[in-house]
Design a protein that fits this description.
4-stranded mixed sheet, 2 domains, PH-domain like, 153 residues
Amino acid sequence: MSPAPRVHRFRPRYRGVAWIAIGAGLLLGAIGAATAQGIWLAGAAIGIALGALYLGSPAWRLAVRVDDAALEVTAGKARRFRLAWGDVIRVVASPSTHSCFVDGGTPAHSLLVPGDGAPAPYDVEDRAGLYAAIVAHVPADRLVEVETLEGAC
């Protein structure tokens, strides 16, 4: 009996920056309210909006599901793509950072599991577990190990 599929959700990587933008927006709003100057209020609206848009992004509904047959990316209940392990072109993997790029043949069927040296605006829950599952399921002849993904893909 094979283990249950594991699900790894996307998470905002720069939450602190978003909260700083919201905080700065609130501060600018207070200054604008105290001085009755519209420019401060405009800055407040921009800071709050940018922070809220990042934290509320639909990207945080994305999840990667891994089972013995395939890797699947979903957005809520909708499937974005499913890539059978036999259809993986290659995986460029960095064991030291638990980062990898799964090449599914097209950008729409590929996945970046980001870590140090692989910047992305998102992180993935249990990145090390997802990395291990991908590496375990991909045939060895399709696995390319590198120190970091930076410049390797």
